[in-house]
Amino acid sequence: MKRFFTPAIFLCILLLNLWFLHSPLLGSIFFVLYVILLCKHVSSITKNSLAGPIVTLSSFIILNTILYYAYGTTPVTTSVVMLLSLLFFIPKKEQGHTERFKDVLTKWSAWKQHTFHPFLYTKDILCALVVTFFDTSLLGFLWLHRTIDLMPSPWQAVDAGFFLIFTVATILLTYIVLTSRSRHISTALVSLHLFVMYAIAALLYPLGYGFDAFIHRATESWIFQYGFITPKQPYYIGQYSFVVFLSHITGLSIHLIDVYLVPLLAALLIPFTVAFSYAKKFNMRQNHALIHILAIALVPFLSFHLTTPHNLVVLLSLLTVFTTLLYQKNKENWHIPLLLTLTALLTHPLIGAPLFGFFLTTLFLKHTKKTSIKHLWLGLSTFGQIFLLPIMFTVNNLRTGHGWPMFGNPFLELPKFFELFVRPYWYLKHAPIFWEMIYTWERMIVPVCVLISLLGFFLYKKKPAADYLYPLTAMGMFLSAWLLRSWITFPDVVVYEQGDYPMRLIHASMLFLLPWFLYGLYRIAKALYIEHDKYWRTILVILGAGLLTVSFYFSYPQRNIKSRFPGFNVTQADFDAVEWIHKHETGFSFSPTILPDPTQIGVVGTIQSGEETITKDEHDYNYIVLSNQLVSATALTKFGFAKTFNTPLGELFYYAIPTGGPLYQQYGKMLYQGQKRAYMETAMDLVGVDTSYFVVNSYWANADRIIEGAKQTADSWEVIDNGDVWVFVYER
After folding, report:
1. Keyword annotations for this protein (predicted)?
2. What one-character DSSP code corresponds to residue 428?
3. FRET partner for 295 with CA separation of 20 to 30 A, picked from 129, 322, 639, 668?
């Protein structure tokens, strides 16, 4: 009963904090302690170290999703989930005194081996401390350079010294992992290094980064306040309910949990889960498998720096691919990839469905003895992967009332597919030779990774039929992306976004080649290590660290002499602009020059003015705002889904999103076809209001000309933050 008593006490403290104390510090500490106990206990009862974190994570997400659809996500359902998790601790059978004594001796021996042994080697522990110092210094540097101003590329906050320190830390990390006998210390160091790579955006942009993440956080905030959002859609709920659950049980803000969720999960789960499965599959030493995990980051688009349902499912897919390898070696591990695929399916069905099909085929292959039947399953699986997503997207289009998409000849429209691989327009030609060499390597990364994957696949002898499923699934998803881009055109999606999902599908297909990519690298490294002396081995490690640093650089948007990324980030000026519009409509006087609380929705929130706290109730929001996506995302962050208008064209949000919507079309006309009052009046007619706002950011192309044109047609305007944003008012 001792194993039940301690977590029960922790759970009582968590529930007490949830309902009465509301302390983020208390909630966070005891939730982490409770989860550690839960993971260790699940691992012990299943006799599988992977089961603890995977079963815990998947169970929380699946239970919260089920309760969300049945009721919602509230403090009540959070309490229910936590109480249900306590069932894991109910003892099935008490151990005898002899068994307990043997268990204690085993744990003591393992603890001594993994804890004390490294300290016998001073050089190893010093290297570990140096790596920790370098990585924590990089994190501290990023924290000190966080900004609420315009910074399109995170690399504008750092200099060459940042990348030099990262490279040196990678070299030392490689040395300590390959020489240390402590798996726990090595795993912790790799996790910390990955967190440095994945936490850049979360640390540098306290207001948030990207665009999609703002939409998802706004939805999570709405669910946190109201329990659910209608209509209850069949996608994204896995992430939404889990983030809201974590916010309830820990007391931390939705914003804080959301921005760090995927970076933290990736840094913690990838080294432990992937390295263990990879080592078992290919019969290699754990430390070799662990250092190869860093090679996953060589593929720049497999970066887990943003929390979105898509990125969460990519992470779950990565874990599924490698744990399925383990299942192929041992039938007893089937429940781990199954839970991961179910979790992915509940989080993002349009991405989770191919993963679920992949695992089902693995099950069939595992339980089929006839070779001809196995070949049939492989063929059916590949064929299904090709057509599954085009069919699902079409059904979803019909379900949401957008009608049938337009179908074309995929062979005649093949150029559309090839356009996905063309470099964006912001890549300049004829840059200095150094930058041309760097960006030539960028184009070569994926082809080289695919070639190494094929090399690894062919070098691995005595492959069972299930191993062929990996490259066939990758090929099926690649061809599915071709059909999705060349065969189907979706209405209400702007032209430049038609290729988004096909490109994501191409990226996801690479996940199924990763085991063979890592094995190919292993065989190459092994051959070079055997054939060359220590000097050349050192050169190999330095080269690998350098290539990892280059891929690290490519994993975030760049602004340099070769690449001029045109995107922007949400700034304080954007928050001040939406605050001013709200103030102008409500007559509520306050100074908006504050760092807004991203968890406040539906109301202005609380504004601190000296000792006083001022609040304001909701109002009718009978106006529209034509602005770019980031300003609209800011409004979502600050006021949530405050207002939608029922129109003949469907429901329209009072800010101009989505980009394929009619309000955004009018915004585009205001930007590029002259700042005519008729465009604003047409927008007002769409929703039946008499007030509209046209927002222009100073960083927009031809902003000066647009601003001067709007001055000629607007009734009035307001200059925000010394001209960073201009707000033009149109009334009738």
Report:
1. Membrane, Transmembrane, Transmembrane helix
2. P
3. 129
Please count the other Cβ atoms lying within 10 Å of the Cβ belonging to residue 602: 16
CA distance 291 to 179: 11
Q: Count Cβ atoms within 10 A of the Cβ of residue 83 and give its class: 0-12 exposed, 13-18 middle, 19 or more buried.
A: exposed
* 99: confidence class by pLDDT, cuts 50, 70, 90: low
User: Can you give 272-323 as a three-state secondary structure string?
Assistant: HHHHHHHHHHHCCCHHHHHHHHHHHHHCCCCCCCCCCHHHHHHHHHHHHHHH
Rounded distance, CA 386 to CA 476, Å? 5
Cα 527–Cα 532–Cα 538 angle in degrees, nearest 5: 100
Q: Per-domain residue ranges for the chain?
A: 2-89, 118-208+284-304+532-569, 368-528, 572-731
> How confident is the model over 224-249, as a mean pLDDT?
94
What would the two tokens of residue 319 be?
A: 């874990």
DSSP secondary structure letters along 657-701: -STTSHHHHHHHHHHHS---HHHHHHHHHHHT-SEEEEEEETTST
* Strand bridging mode 624-626 / 691-697: parallel
Residue in this structure with the two tokens 């003895």, named with its chain if needed = 369
State the angle between helix axes of 122-144 and 160-179 in degrees (0 to 180), rounded to the nearest 10.
150
What contacts 462, CB < 8 A, 6 or more positions away?
Answer: none
Enumerate residues 6+ apart whose C-beta is below 8 A from 526. none
**Alpha-carbon distance 518 to 71, whole Å?**
44
pLDDT band at 617 (very low <50, low <70, confident <90, very high): very low
Before 271, cis peptide (omega within 30)?
Answer: no
Q: Are 635 and 625 in contact (CB under 8 A)?
A: yes
CA 197 and chain centroid, separation: 13
- Spatial neighbors of 685 by CB under 8 A, at least 6 apart, are none
Question: Where does the pLDDT of residue 600 fall: very low under 50, low under 70, confident under 90, or very high at 90 and above?
Answer: very low
450: which residues sit within 8 A by CB, 6+ positions away?
510, 513
- One-letter amino acid of 104: V
DSSP 117: G
Smallest CA-to-CA distance from 264 within 40, 53, 548, 570 is with 53
Other Cβ atoms within 10 Å of 70 Cβ, number: 8
How far apart CA 77 and CA 19 sit, in angstroms, is 12
CA-to-CA distance for 150 and 509, rounded, in angstroms? 34
Q: What HEC string does 26-54 produce? A: HHHHHHHHHHHHHHHHHHHHHCCCCHHHH
What is the CB neighbour count within 10 angstroms for residue 584?
Answer: 16
Residue type, 561: I
Written as six digits, the tokens of 171 are 């070299």
Q: CB-based contacts of 106: which residues, under 8 Å, 6+ apart?
A: none
Cα–Cα distance between 424 and 431 in angstroms, integer? 15
Reply yes or no on whether the pLDDT at 422 is more than 80: yes
Residue 367, Cα to own-chain centre: how many angstroms? 34
Element (H, E) at 492: none
pLDDT at residue 510 above 90? Answer: yes
Asked whether 505 and 488 are in contact (CB, 8 A), the reply is: no
Gyration radius (Cα) of the chain, Å: 27
pLDDT of residue 258: 97
